[in-house]
Amino acid sequence: MRGLLHILSGFLVLCISLFSVGNALSAQSAPAEGKPEKDIVPIDAPSSSLGDVQELIDQILKQDPGNKEALQLKKSLENKQGPAEKEFKKNLWEGTTDQIDGPYIEIPEKESVIRETLSLDPRNKEALEQLKQVSEKKFSLANFLASLEGDRWGGGFRIGLYDPALTALNQGVFKGPFGGGAGVFKNPKSAGDGNEPVKFAFDNDVPEMDLATEAGIEFKWDRNRRSSYLIGLGSWEGNAKSPSKEVAIPIQNRVTRADMFRRAQFSFTQFYVGWKYNLFRWPDRLRFYTRLTANEYFDIDYREDHIYNFKEFDIDGFKRIMILRAQTTGAFAFSAGLGGEYFWKDWLSLGIEAERVFSFSSFNLRNVQRNSDFSDSEQASFAKLPYAFDASGNMLFRKKDGTTERVDLRFDSWKLLFNITFYY
Question: Quick check: pTM over 0.90?
Answer without folding.
Answer: no
